[in-house]
Amino acid sequence: MDSQATVPSTSAAPHTGTTIVAVEYDGGVVLGADSRVSTGTYVSNRASDKITPLSESIYLLRSGSAADTQAVSDYVRYFAEQHEQQLQYSPDEPVKVQTVANLVKMMNYQNKHLVGAMIVAGWDPVEKGQGYGCPIGG
After folding, report:
1. Catalytic residue among 6, 16, 18, 69
2. N or C: which end of the chain has fewer CB within 10 A?
3. Which of 25, 92, 27 lies closest to 56 in space, CA to CA?
4. Phi, psi at 22, each rounded to 5°
5. Which residues pair with 37 in a beta bridge?
């Protein structure tokens, strides 16, 4: 065994970012997110809600720039409502999770200056519980 092995320092704080997760299971999907908002090493808000509803059964999990991801959620919520109205969806047949995820991905792709990775997750009667990753840049 090498006597010169380097031991990692335990005095330095770990570098962490936002944690968001969506786990699909047989009956739906479970969502989770941390609640801290930070700017560098400064924690500006310890109780932020990073899970945003886009429709009655579809949610957006946000990480990255809070302003950018909130703007995306506002636009996508509006577009999803318009989509439901134009296609005259009934409460028994809401907008599909995949459709909303594609709207988020399209917003990210068309606005590459936005800094936010997101997860769209939810439940619809056709595909049941689903989760879609929406990386920075679409």
Report:
1. 18
2. N
3. 92
4. -130, 125
5. 45
Please give the model's pTM, rounded to 2 decimal places: 0.81
Catalytic residue list contains 16: no
Query: Which pLDDT does position 15 carry in this prediction?
Result: 58
For the chain, helix, strand, coil in percent to 5 are 25, 35, 40
Chain segment 84-96, per-residue pLDDT in tens: 888 776 666 788 9
Angle at 24 between CA 17 and CA 55, to 5 degrees: 80
Rounded Cα distance, 20 and 119, in Å: 8
DSSP 75: H
pLDDT of amino acid 116: 87
Which residue in this structure is represented by tokens 């801290």?
36
Count Cβ atoms below 10 Å from residue 71 Cβ, excluding itself. 15
Q: Which tokens in the block code for residue 114?
A: 């936005």
CA Rg value for the chain: 18
Average pLDDT over residues 96-107: 93
